[in-house]
Design goal:
Two copies of one chain form a homodimer.
Chain A (H helix, E strand, L loop, with lengths): L6 H27 L4 H10 L4 E2 H8 L3 H13 L3 E5 L7 E5 L1 H12 L13 H16 L3
Antiparallel strand pairs in A: 1-3, 2-3
The structure holds a DNA duplex.
DNA sequence: CTGGATATTTCATGTTGTCAAGTAAATGGG
DNA sequence: CCCATTTACTTGACAACATGAAATATCCAG
């Protein structure tokens, strides 16, 4: 199926692997600086889009709904999130960021320097090229 | 410190975030297909470089050595890895992949289509440009 | 109104991660 | 040589995350 992979492709794949590792590392580190785990930070980030049903959070995190219960529990116990009832469907609970949660999430986002700082090395034209190449890569497997 | 971020940079950052998420997802999925967790797959991958002290594995995974103990335990109990004594220093234990472990790791690597498949969409010249841009990004924060 | 589907939680269990304490072995200064 | 320190690994206690099965409450179609 996949004939001998050319060295160039292999090199790019490896670079992407390195970027993934570094991005993850920085993300966890930034979350920890705000006393959050990576999972908590991700959920809090999702909640900035507005109150969200537990089920939807599970879909976005690609995990089981029962797992989200615990994560939101922990956010709630710190006053960063709260559960609301959905007036339209009494089965669903909407997780929502509190004011403190929104602030924390925003500070966290601001401290995510990776990818932003290194990009400063590139000219605007180069960033445009990079954007288009990445978009085509992502568009290739929808 | 960071003035209003230009939209282009923001877009690239977001694209990288998407790539990271997709890469992780595919990696975990591929590992699961071989009955491995992500952490086990990563360690097994590191072991293809030859027998490695537990300490070194911890450094490469950026976690505590005590954590590696458990991961190698689980690999060992499945016959995918083994511990050897280092003749040069009797304190250290070298984790090594067994033949079965090497096979599993190789099959897993072969099933990691992400980043390889999408790259086929790009011409060789484009991949070269992409490689150089990524290298400069990574080189910027050593 | 009833039966099936859906949303959430709880519980049991396993993996990953941290930290502190303990054992064993190397190493260096007196 | 000897002892104090450092280094490598493991163990144990504990928290977070993740899955799957079962329980509860609600919705909705027929």
């Amino acid at each position: 199926m996949t004939s001998p992979i050319d060295p160039l492709t292999l090199e790019v794949v490896e670079l992407i692997g390195t970027i993934v590792a570094r991005y993850y590392e920085e993300y966890e580190e930034a979350a920890a600086k705000h006393s959050l785990t990576g999972a908590q930070a991700r959920v809090l980030g999702l909640l900035t889009g507005g109150p969200t049903p537990m089920r939807r959070l599970a879909q976005q995190l690609k995990c089981e709904p029962s797992n989200v219960t615990g994560i939101v529990d922990r956010l709630e116990s710190r006053g960063l999130a709260e559960r609301r009832l959905d007036p339209a469907d009494r089965r669903v609970k909407l997780a929502a960021a509190t004011e403190a949660g929104r602030e924390t999430s925003q500070r966290l986002r601001g401290s995510l320097d990776f990818a932003r700082e290194p990009l400063a090395e590139l000219t605007e034209e180069e960033r445009t090229v990079l954007r288009d190449l990445l978009k085509r890569m992502l568009g290739a497997t929808p």
